[in-house]
Amino acid sequence: MKPTLQLKLSQQLNLTPQLQQSIRLLQLSTLELNQEIERIIQENPLLELNEGWNAKLFDSDETKNQSQPDTALDGKEAVQTDQDYSLDWSEGSTYSNNTHNDEYEIPQIAAEPVSLREYLNQQISLSHASEREKKITTLLIDSLDDDGYLIQDLNELLEMLPVELGINIDDLNQSLTYLQHLDPPGVGARNLQECLLLQLQNLPEDTPHLNQAIEIVAQYLDVLASHDFTLIKRLLKCDDQSLRVIQKLITNLNPKPGSDFSNTDTRYIIPDIIVSKVNGAWVANLNMDAVPRLNINHFYANILKQKHEESSQGLSTQLTEAKWLIKNLQQRSSTILKVSNAIVERQQQFFEHGEIAMRPLILREIAESLELHESTVSRVTTQKFMRTPRGILELKYFFGSHVATDTGGACSATAIRALIKQLIQKENTKKPLSDNKIANILEEQGIVVARRTIAKYRESMHIPPANLRKTF
């Protein structure tokens, strides 16, 4: 091949270290931020914590030993939330309690737990994928929830990405396929059905009744959930013994592939924002006990003023870094407060009447009103919490899809879920409401929702179908 010279013009987005730090601090939760600050203070003698800062509030070792906190919070206490799953280490454990072993045993030190994101990123770093694909896959990994599901729609994610990156929907779909082939099987799924299918497709091809199990999950998962085994046998043309094997194959799958990486200890949430009623209106204020307060260490700063030798060049650099950190922390608090106030301003009726009064809200609406990028609003609303009279809620809770009404307006998906839950709570359990009946009731109220959407919302609230709710 004849060598040639080509001129290629491309755009590249370069971020300064200060801007990179600002973005990183913004996406950290309050607990993660405190850990990051502790690390930086150990490395930079020019920084010190304000004497009034209650660092013990964020001490994970101490909070684990606290008793159940009182429900009436003053903003200084952590809130306990329980996980809805548990891990069973009874099988396959390498730990031994045999104290009569004559051989010397090396003391076992518990390894630092690896998060799902760290585990996936480790696999990516060792793969032969292109750097571009690795970076796009990393974006998708950041959108996974603790159970390993992709919680953000690809089109919504695409809209949040800067145009300069040149990423299109095909790139995201290709990277999602790559992510879904990583370990643990089922990671990156967008719903339970896709999660189970990914795990089945990862099994050896000679697994007995594998194709039939795939067929059930792909087409008849709702039939299996309703325990209509007679219909399943007829659809698959199989006997009782085969059905038992198929059912065991499916029930042995993990519906939460990321749960093994989640911390099963009690989780504590420190609210970043406190919502209260002032002069008849709900307003947001920073929880000052959750805002890190840093100072410049004047002892070392005075040394820099008195000396100008090369030996003090390192301290001069650390002083600049300290000032940038303090500025970025102030910017983080300011941005969180601005976004929170914009949310509270639009959701006044929610604070008055609850979920049923939640109005439709998207990231773009807040971003445009505050002249911020959508990705910034997304970072602010992730792992940041608001203490309200209706509980402690993640800022992202106030956003969601919407459904059009026949009057030309829109109704929040959260409000529709609340309506569905309310209808089911009041139903006659001897004649429970079908999804189609619920859709008809909502239509009479001016909210047009498809039956399959009702089923989707019902399942998201872990409410069984009508035939399983029926009592005799």
Automatic annotation (TrEMBL):
Coiled coil: none annotated. Keywords: DNA-binding, DNA-directed RNA polymerase, Nucleotidyltransferase, Sigma factor, Transcription, Transcription regulation, Transferase. One of its GO terms (biological process) is DNA-templated transcription initiation. One of its GO terms (molecular function) is nucleotidyltransferase activity. Residues 108-300 form the RNA polymerase sigma factor 54 core-binding domain. Sigma factors are initiation factors that promote the attachment of RNA polymerase to specific initiation sites and are then released. This is RNA polymerase sigma-54 factor. It comes from Nitrosomonas aestuarii.
